[in-house]
What does this fold into?
Amino acid sequence: FRVTPLGVIAVEQKHLESEYGEAPARRAIAQLSERRLLKVEFISSEPAARTKQRKMVRLLTASPDDRETQPKPRPAQNRVLLELETNGGELPLTDLLAGAKTGAATVQALEERKLVETFWGESRRNPLAGMDEGAIPKFTLSAEQTAALAAIEKPMQAGAYQTFLLHGVTGSGKTEVYLRAMRDALDLGKTAMMLVPEIALTPVFSRRLRSRFGDDVAIFHSSLSIGERFDEWNRLRRGQARVVIGTRSAVFAPVKNLGLLVVDEEHETSYRQHESPYYHARDTAIVRAREANAVVVLGSATPSLESYANAKSGKYGYLQLPHRVGKRPLAQAEVVDLREAFAVEGKPVIMAPELLEAIADTQARGEQSIILLNRRGFSSFVLCRTCGESIHCANCDITLTYHKADNSLLCHYCNFRRPTPQVCPACQGKYIYYVGEGTEQIEDLLREKFPAMRIARLDRDTAARKHGFEQVISAFGRGELDMLVGTQMLAKGHDYPNVTLVGVISVDAGLGMPDFRASERTFQLLTQVAGRAGRGDRPGRVMVQTYYPEHYVLRHAIAQDFEGFFAEEIRHRKNLGFPPFVSLASILIHHENLAVVMEIANRLKAAFDAANADRSCRILGPAPAPLARLKGEHRMQILIKGRNRVKMRALIDAAVNGPTITASEMRWVNLEIDPVNLM
It folds into this structure.
């Protein structure tokens, strides 16, 4: 397998045939395919990216003194010469003309005087072009930061592999430790890599990295054009960039002599690739670092239970930053009991009076606020009050979400879209009722209640256009907005000193998800978003609305007590037999025909039972997946739990590689080891 500039692990068959001979390559591919060691697929390639050629202008006489003997340049010509001098003596013609505010005739006149020359050359498509890198802030490391940095530097200087868990509360200065460690790696002649979980965070951290390391930084994420990714990939291959930042696919970037690999917010499930090829960027980073004798730093304020357990057992080095920079206090958190608001109003309320009052007070003080609701759209689903029918997706077993902006119903899984009906499709009733709330509705409600407030929404709908994330985040950072309303992408990585209020509309839906990690994810989300408040000189306040204030997750999240949450959650995991006490495998069977799904699932279950003669593993299912129909396919699930990972893998190999399932049927089977999402 090879890693391409687009981050895909694949190789074309014709390349193998030319490398090893047509007949031997085809025989090997057939044998390996039959043994399920590789998968042969017909795919449509993206348009080939290539180096971009542009007309360039180069300054021939760089010194102003050399021009004294020649006729004095005209004002427009002088602007061109100064523009070239300011930008290193070479620029694309279009950029030069725009910067000098002149036409091509001016450059032609200078070329005739042999002061400049024009040529066709390679031009880099820079994804960060035009972005303000900002000044480099001056920080004095705390004693805790200094100790953490020294621990990271020691194996890096020795050229030894080591994984560290950097557990620091929000605002404790983890990013500064990352940047200093990356500088040390570069000073040692090595390269550095930083992974972030969300595209929204790449411009934030890219600016910080560019301010420290200049053009040594390359950026990778899926919002870049093919050409931009191609150029960044080539810069890394050629050694023109020695620092790379990006989302999960950046872990495959072609950096050489790797010294440091940082995985920020290591607990995030977005590091898991849920489509073939399956991988977890955090785990892949650890393997890559081990192969390169490099250092890995896993950073988080709320580590995954697996990583924290590895740190506690000594498998990872444990570095702790228990205090915020400058000894600033954590934001004061409180629960808003929606049951009390319901008793007063006599109906469910979207935003409690206490939260609305806090928003008004924050605005009056000239401070900023963040409102989180981890559900996009306007309403969760549409209901007919005449017959009780709700409108479902044509391809999935879920209701469609109402989006007011384009008056449509949308499936957030397969993107099926249909116009919002005026009458019920089932009974033709005219009483259409919109149930539940999303970020669109919250934005509308707040604009109505606070018309003078400058409000923006940040979710996947508003960020569909290129640089949509960056524009909203930058405007909020400059103080041009008073409030951000959005989903979980607001919860991590952002540092806004003027934010003093964070409101969480509802966490109850997250707690009720049919996944053993639901409690952990809710705790992480609450802790992370609470960390956005009070990062400056003024204290912060966090208000969490819920109908279930007694839940242990909320109790520990409000106290911002990770140790207490870990102790209680790990006890539940142990009693129920879930990771980290067992290894987990998920086998998902999917097909358009339910009978085919059930038939393959039952055969697989029988094969697993036969291979599990010593009962070393526990096999659950087959049963309908929590989302029993998705993207037009029915889905059945088998879970395998094993206390011995080697035995569990041997059981799976014996069942899957046996005669039970044919090669053609394996296309309908998805096998995941250590899944992070069981939906």
